Amino acid sequence: SRYIEMTIAEDAGKEQCVFPLPEPQDLFQASQMKFEDFQKDLRKLKKDLKACETEAGKVYQVSSKEHMQPFKENMEQFIIQAKIDQEAEEASLTETHKCFLETTAYFFMKPKIGEKEVSPNVFFSIWHEFSSDFKDFWKKENKLILQERVKEAEEVCRQKKGKSLYKIKPRHDSGIVSI
């Protein structure tokens, strides 16, 4: 409660008051991913790219020189770029997996018995539950802070209405106003 008051008190009820954690739904989706599936997909893409390159080579062999361009040039550019992209994706997946393992180690998470590493499902399921509970509590606290601010603003309005901007002096019996 104190943390929430300190972090959102200024922005409570305003548009800039943003939930400070990843959305629970995003964490749930992260818990459903498997590094093995991504690795398998990348291997399949690499195999498909190799097959595409082979098929393009067959087309080059049976085509006459006057009909080969611009197909050959476009396919060669495509295959070169596809290989670069595929290698970049493999490197990105390797780096992401490494960062994930470092993160699980930072939080002292140990793999389940019989597993060699902590799975994203285990790791992100815990964070999903925490984020979900925290978001419910955060919304309630935000609402309470907003209600307190509204009450304070209403009190300031009441006090200002109670004080007149001009002074009314009592009228003399003679009807002459004294200054």
Overview of this structure, please?
This protein is mainly α. It has a domain at 33-155. It is 70% helix and 0% strand. The protein is built from 6 helices and no strands. The longest helix is centred in the last third of the chain and has 43 residues, at 120-162. The model has no long low-confidence stretch (mean pLDDT 86).
- Low-pLDDT regions: none
What is the helix/strand order? Answer: HHHHHH
Percentage of residues in helical conformation: over 70%
Q: How much β-strand is present in the residues?
A: under 5%
End-to-end CA span: 56 Å
- Please give the count of helices: 6
The general outline is: elongated
The total count of strands amounts to 0
Question: Radius of gyration from the CA trace?
Answer: 34 Å
Largest sheet: none
Structural class of the helix and strand makeup? mainly alpha
Mean pLDDT: 86
List keywords for this structure.
179 residues, mainly alpha, 6 helices
